[in-house]
Specification:
Blueprint lengths: L4 H5 L2 E4 L6 E3 L2 H6 L5 H5 L5 E4 L4 E4 L9 H5 L5 E3 L7 E4 L3
Antiparallel strand pairs: 1-6, 2-5, 3-4
């Protein structure tokens, strides 16, 4: 039986650090130059959400599974995503 992404994500835990390890370089680039917002579409953990009424990307860093998709997909290289400090971030388990 093939597991779904949602079932596989259930096999991890996340220890939220005191500060974010993800930042948006220039929010104006997201608002004015990036029509497709691929980070909001590609991220498997739904870290990024485009908020239309305020014209900005919301970042839920505590959802991050540290896959790096956001860094690869941003056409403007406007997302800075480092690894969380030691002891924080995602921890994978095997089911």
């Amino acid at each position: 039986m093939k597991e779904t992404v949602e079932a596989k994500l259930g096999l991890l835990t996340y220890k939220k650090g005191p500060e974010t390890h993800i930042s948006i370089g220039d929010p104006n680039i997201c608002a004015s130059q990036c029509p497709d917002k691929p980070c909001a579409t590609v991220c498997p953990a739904k870290v990024y959400e485009w908020e239309e009424h305020s014209k900005k990307i919301l970042v839920a860093y505590e959802n991050c599974i540290e896959c790096g998709a956001c860094r690869m997909i941003c056409p403007f290289q406007n997302i800075k995503c480092d690894w969380p400090n030691g002891g924080f971030g995602v921890q994978y388990q095997y089911g």
